[in-house]
């Protein structure tokens, strides 16, 4: 059993589609499928495998699960010592059998010549499609991948490594590819440009994968490819060239065999398990923290924090809501202006750069394409003070940032983020008090109190988790509803947003969140007896305000479901149901109030019978725009 700290070093990379390939002298079909199974939790809509058996290239694809590929392999008796396997999450072209990878391009005799699996997007694929069609290539899919495989075939020089090198110069986009050519059946060529790709060094066999997790139990060492690098993978040798075409020595990292925590134990879903892992995840994230004088955000952070005059946060989804919460903390404690930008919006608008700003990317996976682009965009605008808060230490976003804080949530399997969010908030609070400290705005006593409060978090979270039975009772009612409104104020508004997102994602119930003061400016029109309204109402400076907002809801017949603390004096009444939180949490309360909302969504979805860990249409991490 490995510890949370071991997990930190697992160098997991998270992405949407999955690539697993091998060059061996034994039948690797079942090993490749096992690798795909290890990536299944990230979500996919189709899968496939191509195997070369010394004579011909065979392929099996499926719109079902990897298990179906296994069944078909047995049925068709396909084997091979070299192969490419893939799970697809549709980007170009609908989820369909023909769009599933691997894609083939055949020679003149009609035999498959080149096989390709691909993650990411080739942006300029349309530039090639027509001309390839004009010279006789027939397309059976709507994918950019099939255009690429025909292009490789068309430009094949007799050496697939050279061919990939030439073709890469023509491509635009973010991608990772693995290519096999039946004329050179002892090698697979891989290339990375914007999407993760790793090489696994085995004994007498070598692997290529979009994630070390898929192959970590088969190899001794892992090599992380960088953008622009191309690898020539053979059984006994691995050569990598950089973007300028020079052969390079790559660092080899010991592979840590990560046994996927497939043991759900008493839990029914990974999401539930991960919610209950939160005390440990927070404790691990704070491990070793004795004082704020340590350079916990990286070398030079104390000096840099003194020079910045604002913070620009870029993130997506749940990580964006963590950033929104941080705005309240940083502005109030450190008196530094904070702008929080949805990464996909920030990239494409004319913003006014401030070179004295700290650009902070928040991302669980560290591979989210929009967040990575936003970070690069900020740098291109001259903002060089960059930092990430991330759960994957080897991810692209971490590598792209000057300073980093690695949350230690451990791998998060449920698509809907829970423990990653809570550890992000923990790290962000730590950043807020560190910034305050660097500006002399924190007394010694305050530092001691805040650090003590942070260390108390795991046990506070444990107490909140014990509310589960009460929340389960509410879930019964929510599961019969089509719409839910979430309200919060101040630093709890982002928590209401996160509660609504969780509800949408896993129960498919339409949920909206508003800052409660906005009710009368529009959303009040939605409130009827059929619309449950969830309120986050801790005893803070805005309590009386939110109580008035609750009255506005009650006056329209709305039913209130309130999370409050004992001192709020909000009690069960007609149309008002209250769950009292075990303690009063002060400035840290957003972290604690997020947890009952996670449980409410989870139990509502459980009653509705949705695919909680793999909600429809969603992938664990979004490595395409
Ligand atoms: C929601 C969720 C997503 C992610 C978002 C960003 O439960 O998980 O909204 O937060 O896709 O992902 P990361 O944090 O990996 O950049």
TrEMBL record:
**The protein's name:** Glutamine--fructose-6-phosphate aminotransferase [isomerizing]
Q: Which gene encodes it?
A: glmS
Q: Where in the cell is it found?
A: Cytoplasm
Keyword Amino-acid biosynthesis assigned: no
Which Pfam family, an example, fits this chain?
A: SIS
Q: Which SUPFAM superfamilies match?
A: N-terminal nucleophile aminohydrolases (Ntn hydrolases) (SSF56235), SIS domain (SSF53697)
- UniProt-listed InterPro entries: GATase_2_dom, GFAT, GFAT_N, GlmS/AgaS_SIS, GlmS/FrlB_SIS, Ntn_hydrolases_N, SIS_dom, SIS_dom_sf
Q: Which GO terms describe its cellular component?
A: cytosol
- List keywords of the entry alphabetically: Aminotransferase, Cytoplasm, Glutamine amidotransferase, Repeat, Transferase
- Functional note: Catalyzes the first step in hexosamine metabolism, converting fructose-6P into glucosamine-6P using glutamine as a nitrogen source.
One of the entry's Gene Ontology molecular-function terms is:
glutamine-fructose-6-phosphate transaminase (isomerizing) activity
Reaction(s) this enzyme catalyzes, per UniProt: D-fructose 6-phosphate + L-glutamine = D-glucosamine 6-phosphate + L-glutamate
Q: Which CDD domains match?
A: GFAT (cd00714), SIS_GlmS_GlmD_1 (cd05008), SIS_GlmS_GlmD_2 (cd05009)
Outline the extent of the SIS domain: 301-441, 474-615
User: Where do the Glutamine amidotransferase type-2 domain residues begin and end?
Assistant: 17-236
Q: What class of enzyme is it?
A: transferase
What does the subunit comment say? Homodimer.
Q: Which GO terms describe its biological process?
A: amino sugar biosynthetic process; carbohydrate metabolic process; fructose 6-phosphate metabolic process; protein N-linked glycosylation; UDP-N-acetylglucosamine metabolic process
Q: What is its EC number?
A: 2.6.1.16
List, from the UniProt record, the residues annotated as the active site of this protein.
17 (nucleophile), 620 (for fru-6p isomerization activity)
């Amino acid at each position: 059993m490995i510890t949370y700290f071991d997990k930190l070093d697992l160098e997991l990379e998270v992405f949407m589609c999955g690539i697993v390939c091998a060059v061996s002298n034994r039948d690797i079909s079942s090993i490749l499928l096992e690798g795909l199974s290890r990536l299944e939790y990230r979500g996919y809509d189709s899968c496939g495998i191509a195997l070369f058996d010394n004579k011909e290239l065979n392929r099996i694809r499926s719109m079902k699960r990897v298990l179906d590929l296994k069944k078909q392999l047995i049925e068709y008796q396909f084997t091979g010592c070299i192969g490419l396997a893939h799970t697809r999450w549709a980007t170009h072209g609908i989820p369909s059998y023909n769009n599933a990878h691997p894609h083939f391009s055949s020679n003149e005799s009609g035999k498959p010549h080149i096989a390709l699996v691909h993650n990411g997007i080739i942006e300029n694929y349309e530039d090639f499609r027509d001309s390839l069609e004009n010279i006789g290539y027939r397309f059976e899919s709507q994918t950019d991948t099939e255009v690429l495989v025909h292009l490789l075939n068309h430009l094949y020089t007799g050496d697939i490594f050279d061919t990939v090198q030439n073709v890469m110069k023509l491509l635009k986009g973010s991608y990772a590819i693995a290519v096999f050519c039946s004329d050179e059946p002892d090698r697979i060529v891989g290339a990375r440009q914007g999407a993760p790709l790793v090489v696994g060094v085995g004994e007498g066999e070598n692997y290529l994968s979009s994630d070390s997790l898929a192959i970590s139990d088969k190899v001794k060492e892992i090599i992380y490819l960088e953008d622009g690098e191309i690898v020539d993978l053979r059984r006994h040798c691995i050569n990598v060239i950089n973007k300028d075409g020079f052969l390079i020595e790559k660092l080899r990292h010991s592979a840590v065999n990560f046994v996927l925590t497939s043991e759900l134990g008493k839990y029914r879903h990974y999401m539930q398990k991960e919610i209950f892992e939160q005390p440990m995840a927070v404790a691990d994230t704070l491990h070793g923290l004795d004082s704020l004088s340590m350079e916990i955000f990286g070398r030079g952070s104390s000096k840099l924090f003194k020079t910045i005059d604002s913070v620009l946060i870029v993130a997506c989804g749940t990580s964006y809501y963590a950033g929104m919460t941080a705005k309240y903390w940083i502005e109030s404690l450190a008196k530094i202006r904070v702008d929080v930008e949805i990464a996909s919006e920030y990239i494409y608008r004319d913003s006014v750069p401030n070179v004295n700003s700290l650009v902070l990317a928040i991302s669980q996976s560290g591979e989210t394409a929009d967040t990575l682009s936003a970070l690069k965009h900020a740098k291109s605008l001259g903002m060089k003070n960059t930092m990430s808060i991330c759960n994957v230490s080897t991810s692209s976003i971490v590598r792209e940032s000057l300073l980093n804080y690695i949350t230690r949530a451990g791998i998060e399997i449920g698509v809907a983020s829970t423990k990653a969010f809570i550890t992000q908030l923990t790290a962000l609070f730590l950043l807020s008090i560190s910034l305050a400290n660097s500006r002399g705005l924190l007394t010694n006593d305050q530092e001691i109190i805040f650090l003590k409060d942070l260390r108390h978090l795991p046990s506070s979270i444990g107490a909140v988790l014990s509310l589960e039975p009460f929340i389960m009772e509410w879930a019964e009612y929510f599961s019969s509803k089509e719409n839910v409104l979430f309200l919060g104020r101040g630093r709890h508004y982002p928590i209401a947003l996160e509660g609504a997102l969780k509800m949408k994602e896993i129960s498919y119930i339409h949920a909206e969140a508003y800052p409660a003061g906005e009710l009368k400016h529009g959303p009040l029109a939605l409130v009827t007896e059929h619309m449950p309204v969830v309120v986050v109402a801790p005893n803070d400076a805005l309590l009386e305000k939110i109580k008035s907002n609750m009255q506005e809801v009650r006056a329209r017949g709305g039913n209130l479901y309130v999370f409050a603390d004992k001192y709020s004096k909000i009690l069960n009444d007609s149309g008002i149901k209250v769950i009292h939180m075990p303690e009063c949490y002060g400035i840290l309360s957003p972290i604690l109030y997020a947890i009952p909302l996670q449980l409410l969504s989870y139990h509502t979805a459980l009653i509705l019978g949705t695919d909680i860990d793999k909600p429809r249409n969603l992938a664990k991490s979004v490595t395409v725009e």
